[in-house]
Amino acid sequence: MPDLLSKFLETLSPRSYVATGMRASSGLAIRYDAFAGLKLICVDHGACFVSPSADADERIELREGDAIALVAPQNYIIATSADAPPRESRDVNPRLSDGLALYGDSGCASVRLFAGKMVPDKAVAQFFFSALPSVLVIRRDEGGDSIRRMMRIIHYERLGREPGAEYATSRLIDLVMLTVIRFALQFPDAGRAGLFLAMKDRRLVPALWLIHNEPARDWTVDMLAEAAHMSRPRFSAHFRSIIGMPPMDYLVRWRIRLAVQRLRDTDDPVKVIAASLGFKTPVAFARTFRRQEGITPRKSRAESRKLLQATLESTLREADGEAPFAEKETMTKADV
Q1: C-alpha–C-alpha distance, residues 189 and 192, integer Å
Q2: CA–CA separation, 231 vs 240, rounded Å?
Q3: Are 84 and 324 in contact (CB under 8 A)?
Q4: Which of 93, 160, 171, 184 is deepest in the core (most CB within 10 A)?
Q5: pLDDT for position 329
Q6: What is the CA angle 108-111-113, rounded to 5?
Q7: For residues 113 and 50, is the Cβ–Cβ distance under 8 A?
Q8: Are 278 and 305 in contact (CB under 8 A)?
Q9: Phi–psi pair at 57, nearest 5 degrees
Q10: pLDDT tens digits for the chain (336 residues)?
């Protein structure tokens, strides 16, 4: 069966990633603001409690080697005690020690966490987030310990800044994301209607592979149904039930997602991008693009480049340690 996940991940590379962490004593609880990316927390030592929503009554206990992924959380709480009252992150001022935010006396710190936040390429992020559950708890023996080891290496690579550190961390970031997605794919009810759920469907994978491998080709429902070894009506109904939209709508949306990327990342003329993605004319491309995105291709190019620059500058400031752990959650406001 074609490796559709690898094909998709080629376009998913995070546009920004910040690795950080904290050491804290008991009795601490911090409430963080909403974040439209993927928030990942793993316990390197001790135990902590996480509320995926600040309004939730339950706090999920994480022990050494456990990890939790929060997908576009509205707000959330990290605590070192199950019943500690939360404080707003903006009101807490830790000091930095070895690249970690230290809360309280270093000799009393009972918990050490590594954390990171990823913003998948905004051009394709909606495919990513719509396919994942909002909360993924990954226990130590389910892959959490692998995440912890990778996050630890990322932390020390960033801290040491040896030659090749950026290359090493970028590869590890991809592996962390892959580990989270693989964990989600293990469970029948883990994915909502979307691409990741379809990746487990042996009938749909060949058809989706065609779309992602050759998005510019003039595909028809009959051609895709043949690849899936299904009749046209049955294929159309099954595709919609798993993906959440008709096959041709998915093809058009994916082409526009790729167009957003190319407009931002290349200087190719609009007509060249349109032809490379299977649109018959630049006018047809512009009309479809505006219907999907609400703006023209040229305006999309200008806005996405401005946003990307702001994101990169913000990420570099955080990587240089200009903001403590409690304030890092406000990064990339324009991107969320």
Answers
A1: 7
A2: 14
A3: no
A4: 184
A5: 35
A6: 140
A7: no
A8: no
A9: -80, -35
A10: 678 888 877 777 655 566 678 888 778 888 988 877 888 999 999 999 999 887 767 889 999 999 999 988 878 999 988 888 888 888 888 878 777 888 866 566 688 999 888 777 777 777 777 778 888 999 999 999 999 999 999 888 888 878 988 888 888 888 888 898 888 888 765 445 677 788 888 999 999 999 999 999 999 999 999 999 999 999 999 999 998 899 999 999 999 999 999 999 999 999 999 999 999 999 999 999 999 999 999 999 998 888 777 766 665 555 554 443 433 333 332 232
Q: Helix/strand/coil (H, E, C) string of the chain?
A: CCCHHHHHHCCCCEEEEEEEEEEECCCCEEEECCCCCEEEEEEEECEEEEECCCCCCCCEEEECCCEEEEECCCCEEEECCCCCCCEEHHHCCCEEECCEEEECCHHHCCEEEEEEEEEECCCCHHHHHCCCCCEEEECHHHCHHHHHHHHHHHHHHHHHCCCCHHHHHHHHHHHHHHHHHHHHHCCCCCCCCCHHHHCCCCCHHHHHHHHHHCCCCCCCHHHHHHHCCCCHHHHHHHHHHHHCCCHHHHHHHHHHHHHHHHHHHCCCCHHHHHHHCCCCCHHHHHHHHHHHHCCCHHHHHHHHHHHHHHHHHHHHHHHCCCCCHHHHHHCCHHHC
Record the tokens describing residue 118, joined without a space. 């990823």
Q: Return the amino acid letter for 82.
A: A
Task: Fill in the amino acid letter for 130.
Answer: S
The tokens of 61 are what? 């206990």
Can you give the C-alpha Rg of the chain in angstroms?
22
